[in-house]
Amino acid sequence: MIRVILLSICLTAPTFSLAENITVYKCVIKGVPTFSQLPCALDAQAITLKNINVTTAYSNTTASSKITDTSVDDYLKTQQINRDIKRYQLAIKQYQQQYTEKKQQIDYMTQDKANRLGASSIANAIATKTSALKQSYDALIGQAQQQIEALNQQKEQLSQQP
């Protein structure tokens, strides 16, 4: 008799949900993102996760009625997109710094080097070399900016999903 009661409790327990949402707190401690059930710092960011009833969500296995909880996946994708955007922004800054350094080297051109390049004057040689350098770095910066725009569009699409 006790086994029957325990069995019935175990079978019906998953159908009851005690909480609708779960709140997790995100803190950055010594540069490392940390997640906790309680606020772990004064600047803790509260993240609310949807709690789904597994029994009802997966009781109907037909392809037309799939129920999924993508809030965590969307959050993680958004965080990855933000990291990628920062990486591309850093690359743009590095490209600009490299361009400035190489431009300074070009500005110190000698007449001998200008003659070897086939230019009529130092100013002409500097202008030619600077133009070629600018085109190559503009292409690299443009590609990085396009990647940032694409990532921003992906992030916007994730935020518009229900």
UniProtKB/TrEMBL annotation:
Instruction: Extract the signal peptide range.
Output: 1-19
Q: Which UniProt keywords apply?
A: Coiled coil, Signal
Residue runs in coiled coils: 78-161
Instruction: Tell me the protein's name.
Output: RNA binding protein
Q: Which organism is it from?
A: Pseudoalteromonas nigrifaciens
